[in-house]
Design a protein that fits this description.
Layout lengths: L4 H13 L4 E4 L5 E7 L2 E6 L16 E5 L4 E8 L2 E8 L4 E8 L33
Parallel strand pairs: 1-3
Antiparallel strand pairs: 2-3, 2-4, 5-6, 6-7
Length: about 130
């Protein structure tokens, strides 16, 4: 919800824990880029369907905003870099830049993983669900 801190503060610990660098949302009816919070860039790109002019609430968190026309966002990822450009329906650029990925999230083996094919417990495969009695 834009620069509204309520939802972001609930989800942000998970974003930080899992090394998320960028969050893209679209609920609001305008374009807004929030200043990085804890190393995370936030984008709201919701003005391509329904526009609510004058609906951005100015805040100290806003890095860029546009609510006087329809916008869409182009994103290109090349290696560890994300390039973004927010454009109006007439082709005017209202915001652009790049973000470099910081760190990499390595998969952690799940030691409690279940077998893909169900077994009886003694290593024998179970028959298909429709054939079980």
């Amino acid at each position: 919800h834009g620069s509204d801190e309520t939802l972001r503060t609930q989800l942000e610990p998970l974003f930080v824990q899992y090394g998320i660098n960028v969050v893209l949302t679209g609920h609001e009816h305008f374009y807004e880029r929030i200043k990085p919070q804890k190393g995370i860039a936030y984008f709201i790109t919701g003005s391509s369907a329904k526009l609510r002019e004058g609906n951005i609430t100015p805040s100290e968190f806003e890095a860029a905003g546009f609510d006087t026309g329809y916008t869409f966002m182009l994103v290109e990822i090349v290696g560890d870099d994300m390039y973004y450009q927010a454009l109006t329906d007439t082709g005017k650029t209202v915001d652009s830049g790049s973000i470099h990925r910081v760190g990499k999230v390595e998969p952690t083996p799940n030691r409690t993983a279940q077998p893909v094919v169900p077994t009886t417990g003694n290593g024998k495969k179970l028959p298909p669900a429709g054939d079980r009695k």
